[in-house]
Design brief:
Layout (H helix, E strand, L loop, with lengths): L1 H7 L3 H24 L7 H24 L5 H26 L5
Length: 102
Protein backbone atom coordinates (compact mmCIF):
# COMPACT_ATOMS: atom_id res chain seq x y z
CA UNK A 1 0.00 0.00 0.00
CA UNK A 2 2.85 2.38 0.82
CA UNK A 3 4.44 1.74 -2.57
CA UNK A 4 1.11 2.42 -4.31
CA UNK A 5 0.67 5.75 -2.56
CA UNK A 6 4.26 6.83 -3.16
CA UNK A 7 4.15 5.89 -6.84
CA UNK A 8 0.67 7.08 -7.76
CA UNK A 9 0.03 10.20 -5.68
CA UNK A 10 2.62 12.45 -7.38
CA UNK A 11 2.40 14.75 -4.34
CA UNK A 12 5.42 14.94 -2.04
CA UNK A 13 3.93 16.13 1.26
CA UNK A 14 0.54 14.44 1.04
CA UNK A 15 1.58 11.12 -0.49
CA UNK A 16 5.20 10.26 -1.13
CA UNK A 17 6.81 11.41 2.14
CA UNK A 18 4.19 9.95 4.53
CA UNK A 19 4.07 6.70 2.53
CA UNK A 20 7.85 6.29 2.72
CA UNK A 21 7.87 7.11 6.44
CA UNK A 22 5.08 4.59 7.08
CA UNK A 23 6.91 1.91 5.07
CA UNK A 24 10.09 2.48 7.08
CA UNK A 25 8.14 2.33 10.35
CA UNK A 26 6.41 -0.92 9.35
CA UNK A 27 9.77 -2.48 8.42
CA UNK A 28 11.49 -1.26 11.60
CA UNK A 29 8.58 -2.45 13.73
CA UNK A 30 8.67 -5.91 12.18
CA UNK A 31 12.45 -6.17 12.57
CA UNK A 32 12.27 -5.09 16.23
CA UNK A 33 9.40 -7.47 16.95
CA UNK A 34 11.35 -10.38 15.42
CA UNK A 35 14.58 -9.38 17.19
CA UNK A 36 12.81 -9.40 20.54
CA UNK A 37 11.42 -12.88 19.99
CA UNK A 38 7.84 -11.94 18.99
CA UNK A 39 6.69 -10.83 22.45
CA UNK A 40 3.00 -10.68 23.27
CA UNK A 41 2.90 -7.19 24.74
CA UNK A 42 5.87 -4.96 23.98
CA UNK A 43 5.29 -1.22 24.47
CA UNK A 44 8.22 -0.18 22.24
CA UNK A 45 6.95 -2.27 19.34
CA UNK A 46 3.50 -0.73 19.78
CA UNK A 47 4.75 2.86 20.10
CA UNK A 48 6.82 2.47 16.94
CA UNK A 49 3.59 2.04 14.94
CA UNK A 50 1.83 5.15 16.26
CA UNK A 51 3.52 7.52 13.78
CA UNK A 52 2.52 5.10 10.98
CA UNK A 53 -1.11 5.65 12.00
CA UNK A 54 -0.55 9.40 11.74
CA UNK A 55 1.01 8.93 8.28
CA UNK A 56 -2.03 6.97 7.11
CA UNK A 57 -4.36 9.65 8.42
CA UNK A 58 -2.32 12.39 6.74
CA UNK A 59 -2.44 10.54 3.41
CA UNK A 60 -6.23 10.38 3.78
CA UNK A 61 -6.84 14.03 4.66
CA UNK A 62 -3.67 15.83 3.54
CA UNK A 63 -5.02 16.69 0.10
CA UNK A 64 -8.12 18.24 1.63
CA UNK A 65 -6.17 20.20 4.22
CA UNK A 66 -3.69 21.59 1.71
CA UNK A 67 -6.38 22.39 -0.85
CA UNK A 68 -5.09 20.08 -3.57
CA UNK A 69 -7.53 19.92 -6.47
CA UNK A 70 -8.54 16.41 -7.49
CA UNK A 71 -11.77 14.96 -8.73
CA UNK A 72 -13.83 12.64 -6.58
CA UNK A 73 -12.54 9.37 -8.08
CA UNK A 74 -8.93 10.58 -7.91
CA UNK A 75 -9.30 11.61 -4.29
CA UNK A 76 -10.82 8.24 -3.38
CA UNK A 77 -8.24 6.23 -5.32
CA UNK A 78 -5.12 8.16 -4.31
CA UNK A 79 -5.90 9.64 -0.89
CA UNK A 80 -8.90 8.40 1.06
CA UNK A 81 -8.72 4.69 0.16
CA UNK A 82 -4.98 4.24 0.73
CA UNK A 83 -5.08 6.44 3.83
CA UNK A 84 -7.81 4.31 5.37
CA UNK A 85 -6.00 1.11 4.36
CA UNK A 86 -2.71 2.19 5.96
CA UNK A 87 -4.46 3.41 9.10
CA UNK A 88 -6.37 0.14 9.37
CA UNK A 89 -3.23 -1.93 8.82
CA UNK A 90 -1.30 -0.01 11.46
CA UNK A 91 -4.18 -0.25 13.97
CA UNK A 92 -4.49 -3.99 13.33
CA UNK A 93 -0.77 -4.46 13.94
CA UNK A 94 -0.96 -2.41 17.15
CA UNK A 95 -3.79 -4.60 18.42
CA UNK A 96 -1.90 -7.75 17.38
CA UNK A 97 1.29 -6.65 19.14
CA UNK A 98 -0.69 -5.48 22.16
CA UNK A 99 -2.46 -8.75 22.80
CA UNK A 100 -1.92 -10.56 26.07
CA UNK A 101 -1.33 -14.22 26.65
CA UNK A 102 -4.61 -16.09 27.12
Amino acid sequence: MCVWVAAASMQAWTGIVPALIAAQLFAADYALWRARGKPWHDPLVIVLLLPAIACGLWIGVGGLVTGMHRGGPGRLLLEVGPGLALTGLACTLVSYHGRHRP
